[in-house]
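Summary for the lay section of the report: proteins are chains of building blocks that fold into shapes. Here we show the chain for General stress protein and then a coded description of the shape we predicted for it.
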Amino acid sequence: MSNANPFGRRTVAQPKLPRGEVVGTYDTYKEAQSVVDRLAKAEFEVSKVSIVGNDLKTVERVTGRLTYGRAALAGAASGAWFGVFFGLLILLVYPVTNLAFFGAAALIGAGFGMLFSLIAYAINRRTHDFTSMTQVLASNYQVIVDPNLADNARDVLARPENVES
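The coded shape description reads as follows.
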């Protein structure tokens, strides 16, 4: 068995780029998605379609300065949500109708979240004093179709959008 290792587990095949013909290149992922949606509405076999992003870039957008106050607030908010979630799990095991239980769980979670967030900020303060959002963007997106179906896909895409097949 070629897919087995000595421990009896199957190994996962390495990912590879899809093969096929490019039926369109688009500036945004949303445009490429809408093309695949058009193919799906025309009852095209969309399992043979892929969207490939080219020239990937990581973009980090700085959203503000990180301070002790912001770190505490973010930690309290995420901790409160965790507390409510934990409260719901406890509710499944021990049904109670008291809403004060959820309030207490949220407050305890907020307290621990704030504490851990402030500790993490104090440790990393000199290396990361800002908040940011990271995205992976592509220069363009190609819709790739199985070579046997590429002409059919081009025919579907050549029709006006408001005409049903």
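Put simply, here is one thing we learned. The two ends are 46 Å apart (CA to CA).
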